[in-house]
Design goal:
CATH class: Alpha Beta
Radius of gyration: 18 Å
CATH architecture: Roll
Number of strands: 5
Number of domains: 1
Number of helices: 4
Distance between the termini: 20 Å
CATH superfamily: Hotdog Thioesterase
Helix content: 10-25%
Strand content: 25-35%
Length: about 160
């Protein structure tokens, strides 16, 4: 089972049960508010006073911001770009705990299943779970999905 994060990763490098730690990222309140102003301007994401009176007791990151940060950690953490052929979609996203300013998110990429394409022999599909935890080891978000990757060239 491949564990290094160097060089190109092809479909054949993914193995069910494989877990890869993809680094961490600390989020600031400014980043939370800037993202939310553009894409999810609910009061508990953009207004400190309103957020303090909400069920969250303060500003929290949009779930979509959390997903975007996770995507960035995947792109930065693994050399997928060279062989990635994109994704046909996600099967599920779960926002389990709020992400707050000062939280440091860490991401684990878990390979669930792999299947070579029968109709397109140049590619295969990899089903994955991304698990984001905060600095306390608490799971804050999970994403279940799939991606297509090029097959390793012969020779």
């Amino acid at each position: 089972m491949r564990t290094d994060l160097t060089g190109d990763w092809y479909f054949e490098d993914f193995t069910p049960g494989q877990e890869i730690e993809l680094g961490s990222r600390t989020v600031s309140e400014e980043e939370i508010i800037d993202f939310a102003r553009q894409f999810d301007p609910q009061p508990f994401h953009v207004d400190r006073e309103a957020a303090s009176g909400s069920i969250y007791g303060g500003v929290i990151a949009s779930g979509w911001h959390t997903c975007a940060m996770m995507m960035r950690m995947v792109v930065d953490g693994m050399p997928f770009a060279s062989t990635s052929m994109g994704s046909p979609g996600l099967d599920g996203v779960r926002w389990l705990l709020p992400v707050r300013a000062g939280d440091t998110l860490s991401l684990r990429h878990v390979t669930k299943q792999v299947k070579a394409s029968n109709s397109k022999p140049d590619r295969g599909v990899v089903w994955t779970s991304w698990v984001a935890t905060n600095q306390h080891g608490e799971t804050v978000c999970t994403i279940e999905g799939m991606a297509m990757f090029k097959r390793r060239p012969a020779g």
